[in-house]
Amino acid sequence: MLRIFLLLAAFAGFTGVALGAFAAHGLKARLSAEYLAVFQTGVHYQLVHALALFGVALLAAHLPGRLLAAAGSLFALGILLFSGSLYALTLSGIGKLGMITPLGGLAFLGGWLCLGLAAWRGA
User: Fold this and answer.
1) Contacts of 86 (CB under 8 A, 6+ apart)
2) For residue 110, what is the enclosing H or E element?
3) Is 12 helix (H, G, I), strand (E, B) or coil?
4) Entry pTM
5) Gyration radius of the chain over CA positions
6) What is the structure's pLDDT at 64?
7) Cβ contacts of residue 117 below 8 Å, gap of 6+?
8) Whole-number Å distance between alpha carbons of 38 and 41
9) 90-114 residue pLDDT tens
10) Which DSSP symbol is given to 65?
């Protein structure tokens, strides 16, 4: 579990920085200010939750448990659904993709809830 969550954290961090730079330099002239802000929101949440995945990986090394595994899995799912849907929405212009975004937000909330429960129970 430690290795998987560290790899996911590294991948999410790397791609988050790359996508942020891509938006700032490559998409600035192609997207409206509103869509650029939506894209940057996806980047922001991806980077925050890359750090959350890193924290879960470190905690899992010392306090393994199902709640920590669930937290890491939900953070990764949240990145995919929340940030991924925002990227797809802004790049494709298909507004219906925005219906996926709240599912990613729920995954993030579930991940934080699992992390809090793991802390409460001592993992």
Assistant:
1) 38, 39, 41, 42, 98, 101
2) helix 101-121
3) helix
4) 0.95
5) 15
6) 84
7) 67
8) 5
9) 999 999 999 999 999 999 999 999 9
10) -
